[in-house]
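Figure 2 data, in text form.
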Amino acid sequence: MTSPLSTAEEAHKAVADRLVRMMEDADLSGARLAALCGWDRSKSHRIINRKTIPRPADIRAWCTACGKPDEAEALIDTTRTARTLYVQWAQYLRGGLGKAQRSHIYQETRAFRVYSCGVLPGMLQTEAYARGILRTIRQFRNLPDDVEDAVKARLERSTATLKSSQVSILVEESALYMPMTELPDHAEQLEHFLTVIGRSNLAFGIIPHLSRRPVWPLESFYAFDDREIQVETLTAMVRVTNRAEVDAYLNAFHQMGRAAAYGPMAKTLIHKALTALQE
């Protein structure tokens, strides 16, 4: 598996590489280019070495100094796209938790594949479990309290998704034993899983503790059709759109799915977890 950051990194690298080639073609040194742009000479070196991501004004100044002003907008678009591929949670959630639940990509997707290594998947969450998770996120990230709006939006999104889309979900067995809410709410969530297993448009698999793993455990991710993967890290939401990387995640999902338990076997693992909660 490649790093989920690599799609964004490759885009930034492509911009930096093009700026370097442009400077070389114009027979300019970093110091000379900085002088033409009115910068301190260290700024050129920071951009060349990708220590600093150039702003639109920086790219325009660079291209003009190299005699290539017509190339600026394409490079600016590439940089803007790269910025959307790696979005820190502080930025992604600045409009509130509720707004984050209303992403258009859910409405546009017909086939979802979800892998969860810890938090039980959002589109199957009960109201109580969703409220507990969203409260935890709000507190951890010190966000304004719009939890009730976020719960409402998440449940509406889940209902629409499960009504119109094909959904495949893989959960690590360890996640069944990882309460992120009060124990009664966690137990209710597990019981809810028992009611949805067997739905015609839902494939729900649990990867047992001792199953032979074809792929090492990964961070939780969502696949939207075959076009985009969203990976949830502690600090950011990473969008993977590079075709080869998307295919790598889909292949990993397929391989892990072969090690998962479904139907009655999945229900047995859930009942085992419910029994453990009561002990």
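Caption note: The chain has a mean pLDDT of 90.
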